[in-house]
Task: structure prediction
Amino acid sequence: MSVRIIIGAQWGDEGKGKIVDLLAKESRYVVRYQGGANAGHTLKFDDKTIVLHLIPSGMFNGDSRCVIGNGVVVDPIALVEELKEVQEITPNLDNRLFISSSAHVILPYHKVLDMVKEKSRGSDAIGTTGRGIGPAYVSKVSRVGIRMEDLLNEEILEDKIRKNLADINKAMEHVYTEPKLSAAKLLDEIRPAIEIIKPYICNTSELLHDALEDDQSILLEGAQGSLLDVDHGTYPYVTSSSPTAGGACTGSGIPPLAITHSLGITKAYCTRVGNGPFPSELDDEAGKKLAKNGHEFGATTGRPRRCGWLDLVALRYAVRLNGFNELALTKLDVLDDFETVKVCTGYKLDGKEISYFPLNSNEVERLEPIYRSFDGWMSSTRDIRNFDDLPQNALDYIRFIEEYIGVGFTIVSTGPKRTETILR
Ligand code: IMP
Result:
């Protein structure tokens, strides 16, 4: 039995979908534990490409039971759109999909609030995905949120929506000077989606506790990344949930001592989408080449991602935060035609050398990266399936990273397809 958390070690988009899909074959359960449809997990198999936003990435490799945990914020309309796509490949979802009755619901007003708040922040905008994530978590912690269980009782749902809108409409009118929202219209908008997802709503905490008792294997699929964590990331340029290891327990109900593996995923370089500090960001030809080779456009919003060299100080911070005892290196092939490859091994902060990742975003903004250069390998790694067959310069690069952060790579991904993977 294993209970493995899969966590992005950077600012998201590390390739978690591919790795979860790969490991799902051996897992009875795959559980999303935080975030919502801001995530975009891309899977490529049998000449198909599918991007999942809410449904766990275990849907297509084997017969894992896919659980949307209590820590996720679920947009019923987005979920139904995704279900349609998924059911083209896997029509029967009986015993395949379970949604926590305690997960919170993203309603259309959360998406409106996300947009008007971003607009009012002006140049301080976070660059959110506009999916209503922050406002939905605000409703949750303010204890006015609507949970999936409320969708099962129209009377309760309507009462809660009307009460919430009474407050929200005051802000719309007087703070944001935006049109007021109508409860009746909103209910009409979401009712068809509710009818479709109702059968999947259940007590997933009990389901997972029973699975633990039966020694079943569980994968906990994180969304976003460690540096976007609301507590440990580059606040306030973060998401509103906890992608890090602790979030996996609160967002699923699985106790910490049940976790057997913590698997971090990092790209062979770095990207970030949205605003906020990014010490090793490149605005030169190398940055453009990373973006081009890596097709670095957001899977959810289509926005171009900012690119830079791998930041080992930030990666070591993520290793410490999550207690990674396994690592996956993704997109190694993106570096295949670089004559020189660099990694950030330290920073200068206001002229002084430091080797830790500062917690204060203003300080992170002022960091000047210190790089170590490696000769590139200038050959394709795409078809390589054995670790030792990698070009010597790629091996030197990988071994330097492992030594710096103190954890080894058990998986190296050299392309987007399931088959383009080295298992070590
Ligand atoms: P939000 O999660 O939509 O509130 O956005 C907050 C920040 O997290 C923004 O910088 C987004 O670009 C970033 N973000 C949210 N979800 C993802 C993701 O799945 N990948 C990468 N960045 C993300």
Summary: The pocket of inosinic acid is lined by residues 12-13, 38-40, 126-129, 131, 133-134, 223-224, 228, 237, 239-240, 273-274 (CB under 6 Å).
